């Protein structure tokens, strides 16, 4: 495995490591996607696992279950502190719910100043996929939305940059070092969003052949 090359001089102990919250949900596929981009990864299950990370992915899954498990072991508080201390974090779907704000369960990390509404498209049968035009890329990205949340448009917020919308609603958003997507890029073979996140982490992703949807690199099975 070739490691993602550091673009900046921010390594702490040798090679950079990207953590993936591994309590529940789609974490194995994020690990596979990040490793296809050349990143070293670590499963994060307790506060000590956050030590020395260059970035963290909070996957999709069930936000209330992740909240519950993270609260029990002190990880919820540690995640909030890590984010406030500037750790780059990429949250997808349930991960985006946890990163944002909201009055209903789950408890939120409130690292991004936007309201995120759970299950806002409806039930499982209302899940869908569609091609998305995302500003960082010059060709469409296939977005898979599974019981997806809706991000309330942060309109006048200076802190948030909307990187893509679907039906007028923000679906990919950046706020400082934090990236949130209401869809699941790890369910496609398109690595562009994972690469974008590695760049936010100050890393230069390794090129993989056929990077937009037809990589020849073998994926790990879990
Ligand atoms: N509906 C889930 C939740 O509320 C999120 C779904 C997903 O991550 N695909 O946590």
> CATH homologous superfamily - what is it?
Class I glutamine amidotransferase (GATase) domain
Radius of gyration: 16 Å
- From the N-terminal CA to the C-terminal CA, the straight-line distance is 18 Å
Strand count, sense and barrel status of the largest sheet are: 7 strands, mixed
Helix content: 10-25%
Concise summary:
With 222 residues, the chain is α/β, with parallel strands linked by helices. It is built from five helices and 13 strands.
Could you outline the blueprint of secondary structure elements for this entry?
Layout: E1 5-6, E2 17-21, H1 27-36, E3 40-44, E4 55-58, H2 63-72, H3 75-84, E5 89-92, H4 94-99, E6 116-117, E7 128-132, E8 141-145, E9 150-151, E10 160-166, E11 169-175, E12 178-181, H5 192-200, E13 203-204
Parallel strand pairs: 2-3, 2-4, 4-5, 5-12
Antiparallel strand pairs: 1-13, 6-9, 7-8, 10-11, 11-12
The structure holds glutamine (GLN).
Structural features, described:
The protein is of the alpha/beta class. It has a single domain, classed as Class I glutamine amidotransferase (GATase) domain (Rossmann fold, 3-Layer(aba) Sandwich). Helices cover 20% and strands 24% of the residues. It contains 5 helices and 13 strands. Strands 3-2-4-5-12-11-10 form a 7-stranded mixed β-sheet. Strands 1-13 form a two-stranded antiparallel sheet. The longest helix is centred in the N-terminal third of the chain and has 10 residues, at 27-36. The protein is globular. Mean pLDDT is 89; it is low at 8-13 and 210-222. The structure holds glutamine. Glutamine binds at residues 60-63, 93-94, 97, 118-119, 146-147. Residues 60-63, 93-94, 97, 118-119, 146-147 line the site of glutamine.
């Amino acid at each position: 495995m070739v490691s993602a090359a550091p673009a900046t001089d921010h390594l702490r102990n040798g090679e950079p490591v990207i953590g993936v919250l591994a309590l529940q949900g789609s974490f194995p596929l994020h690990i596979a996607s990040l490793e296809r981009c050349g990143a070293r990864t670590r499963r994060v299950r307790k506060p000590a696992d956050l030590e020395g990370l260059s970035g963290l992915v909070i996957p999709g899954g069930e936000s209330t279950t992740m909240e519950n498990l993270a609260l029990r072991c002190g990880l919820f508080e540690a995640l909030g502190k890590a984010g406030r201390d500037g750790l780059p974090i990429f949250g997808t779907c349930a991960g985006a719910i946890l990163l944002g704000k909201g009055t209903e369960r789950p408890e939120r990390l409130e690292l991004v100043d936007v309201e995120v509404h759970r299950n806002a498209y409806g039930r499982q049968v209302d899940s869908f996929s569609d091609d998305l035009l995302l500003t960082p890329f010059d060709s469409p990205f296939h977005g898979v939305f599974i019981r997806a949340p809706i991000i309330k448009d942060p309109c006048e917020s200076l802190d948030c940059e909307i990187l893509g919308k679907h039906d007028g609603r923000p679906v990919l958003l950046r706020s400082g070092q934090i990236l949130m997507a209401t869809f699941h890029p790890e369910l496609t073979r398109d690595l562009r969003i994972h690469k974008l996140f590695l760049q936010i982490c100050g890393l230069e992703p390794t090129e993989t052949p056929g990077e937009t949807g037809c990589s020849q690199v073998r994926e790990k099975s879990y």
